[in-house]
Amino acid sequence: MNPWREAWEASEEGVVLFDGERVRYLNPAAARLLDADARHAAGRPAAFVLRHHRLLELWRSGGAAVLTLHGRRVAVRAEGEVLFLRDETEAARTREALEQERRMLAHEFRTPVAGLASLLEVLATEPEPGEAREALELMRAEVERLARLLRGQGGERARPWRLEALRARLERFMPQARGVRWQADHLLDVDPDRVYQVLVNLVDNALRYGRPPVSVRTRPLEGGGVRLEVVDTGEELDDYERLFQPGRRGVHAAGVRGSGLGLALVRRLARSWGGEAYGRRLEEGNAFGVTVPPEGAREDDDAGSAG
């Protein structure tokens, strides 16, 4: 075996050599990407081996393109009598996953940054000392939460605490949430930071896309555990589950700015503590919420604090 052929046999990049209108050689990587039998490819017409009109065009005219071949994303380059194929499927998935993480993080920072900006405006008005201290404390707590988020911390079990403990914090950073009704009578012992992230996204969605009044409430689950949900009185939606897919938005969101990532983030957070996220139609309107398993929730008989 000549050294070039030996290298091609071991290469992860596909190589196809041609002799006129026929295939002269096909290495194992190319055979996998083309779903062809390398042992019987030599001498066969190129059209029978390539079986893809864009591949045939590239081979004949030269150039490069990214094609989908048998479910794989493949970068193709034609140089003279040689066709090179490189499988980029996993690299593309990695890039897509990284980009989705970037968008998720940007989405998660949007509301806190807006809240910090509003508190800075309060401080710029030279408020009373007590108000200034309160604003600084809220800013410090939120910066610490965002730092934990960036470090990937959180998720640990907490001492039992009341959901109502997050109300002031939410309303300070989302002034539009001050009209939201609260009916939360259960204790939770899942990470307050993560529950806060869930509430920010669910309340923001209800205020943007739903119809008032909006309420935050907890309800017992059959078999134990709790539903934590945000309810608005908007019209029934066609497909609740679809809205949990990243980037998907309902027709009710037309004309309203948004990324379509909020509910996907809510689902990921709920699953991090062993729960699930859902949307459903109730008699009074639309409910989007999360479940908290029995070990993370109980009746509010001895209220704690979210700290």
UniProtKB/TrEMBL annotation:
Which protein, by its recorded name, is this?
Answer: histidine kinase
Domain of life (superkingdom) = Bacteria
So what does this thing catalyse? ATP + protein L-histidine = ADP + protein N-phospho-L-histidine
Give any GO molecular function from the UniProt entry: phosphorelay sensor kinase activity
Top enzyme class, one word, equals transferase
Per UniProt, subcellular location reads as: Cell membrane
Pfam families found in the cross-reference section: HATPase_c, HisKA, PAS_8
| Its membrane topology | Multi-pass membrane protein
Species for this entry: Oceanithermus profundus
Q: Among the entry's GO cellular component annotations, what is one?
A: plasma membrane
